[in-house]
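Propose amino acids for all 290 sites.
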C-alpha cells in the first residue's frame, strides 16, 4: 500500500512538474516567454515547448489572427468645401511584432485599438479635408483608402502592429446638410419633371394638329371624290333618263309620276291637298297608259 502511495505521489509530482514546464502554442497565437519579468523568447510557430517552472519563467499569449476595428459612431469630417460628411469605416490589423506590441501596450488589445482609432481619425481628416464632396464620395474614394492605409501603417509599424486593410464603408452628408441637399434635389427633379411635361404637352398639341390637318385633307379628298362620283352618276342617270324619254315619252312620264306618288305618300298618315283634276293625278284617272 505504501508503495502504491509512493508511486501515485511520484506521478503527481511529475505531472505538476510537466504542467509547469511544458506549454503549447496553437496556430492562432504568439507566445512571449518571460524570465524573471523580462522577455527572453518570442515564439510564433505552433508546437510544444519547454520552459522553467514559475516563478523563474512564465508565458503570455497574444492573438495572431487578423482583428477588426469598427467605428461605433461615424466620424464627422469636413471637406474642402466646408461641408460636413459622416464617414463610417473599418480597419483590419494584426500583431506583427509581439515583443514590441507587448512593450508598447502591455499586451492590452483594447489600448491598441484606441491608439489605432486615433491614428485612423487623423489620417481620415488629412485625406478628406483637402478634397471636395464629389471626390470623397466617388472620384477618389479608392485613393483616399490607400492614403489612409499607408499613413496609418507607417505610424503603426513602430507599435508592433501591421495594418492589413482600410475601408470606407459608408459616406453620408451630416443630417443638417442632408435636408438641404434633398430639398435641392427635389427642386431640381421637379424642374426637370415640369420641363418634360411642357415638352410633352407641346408635342401632344403638335401631334393633334397634324392629325386634324391630315383628317381634314382626307375628308376633303373623300368629299371631292364623292362629288365627282355623284356627278358622274347623275350624268349617267340623266343620260339613261334622256334615252328612255326619247324611246317612250308616255312611259317616262308614267314612271316619273309613280316616283312622285311614292314620295308623296311615304306613310299612311300623309295628307295631300291638291285639285283632283290636276295633272298630278292624271295617271290615276286613266285605266290604260299607252
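Proposal:
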Amino acid at each position: 500500500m505504501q508503495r502504491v502511495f509512493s508511486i501515485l505521489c511520484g506521478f503527481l509530482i511529475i505531472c505538476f512538474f510537466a504542467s509547469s514546464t511544458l506549454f503549447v502554442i496553437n496556430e492562432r497565437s504568439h507566445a512571449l516567454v518571460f524570465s524573471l519579468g523580462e522577455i527572453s523568447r518570442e515564439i510564433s510557430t505552433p508546437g510544444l515547448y519547454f520552459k522553467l517552472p514559475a516563478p523563474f519563467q512564465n508565458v503570455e499569449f497574444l492573438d495572431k489572427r487578423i482583428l477588426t476595428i469598427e467605428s461605433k459612431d461615424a466620424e464627422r469630417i469636413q471637406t474642402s468645401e466646408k461641408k460636413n460628411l459622416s464617414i463610417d469605416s473599418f480597419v483590419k490589423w494584426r500583431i506583427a511584432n509581439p515583443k514590441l506590441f507587448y512593450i508598447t501596450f502591455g499586451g492590452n488589445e483594447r489600448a491598441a485599438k484606441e491608439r489605432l482609432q486615433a491614428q485612423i481619425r487623423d489620417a481620415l481628416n488629412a485625406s478628406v479635408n483637402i478634397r471636395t464632396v464629389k471626390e470623397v464620395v466617388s472620384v477618389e474614394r479608392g485613393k483616399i483608402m490607400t492614403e489612409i492605409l499607408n499613413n496609418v501603417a507607417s505610424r503603426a509599424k513602430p507599435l508592433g502592429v501591421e495594418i492589413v486593410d482600410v475601408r470606407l464603408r459608408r459616406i453620408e452628408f451630416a443630417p443638417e446638410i442632408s435636408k438641404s441637399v434633398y430639398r435641392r434635389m427635389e427642386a431640381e427633379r421637379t424642374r426637370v419633371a415640369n420641363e418634360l411635361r411642357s415638352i410633352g404637352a407641346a408635342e401632344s398639341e403638335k401631334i393633334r394638329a397634324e392629325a386634324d390637318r391630315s383628317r381634314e385633307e382626307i375628308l376633303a379628298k373623300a368629299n371631292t371624290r364623292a362629288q365627282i362620283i355623284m356627278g358622274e352618276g347623275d350624268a349617267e342617270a340623266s343620260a339613261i333618263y334622256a334615252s328612255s324619254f326619247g324611246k317612250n315619252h308616255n312611259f317616262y312620264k308614267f314612271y316619273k309620276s309613280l316616283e312622285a306618288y311614292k314620295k308623296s305618300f311615304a306613310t299612311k298618315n300623309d295628307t295631300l291637298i291638291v285639285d283632283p283634276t290636276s295633272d298630278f293625278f292624271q295617271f290615276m284617272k286613266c285605266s290604260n297608259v299607252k
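Residues 250-290 form one domain. The chain has three domains: 2-63, 67-173, 250-290.
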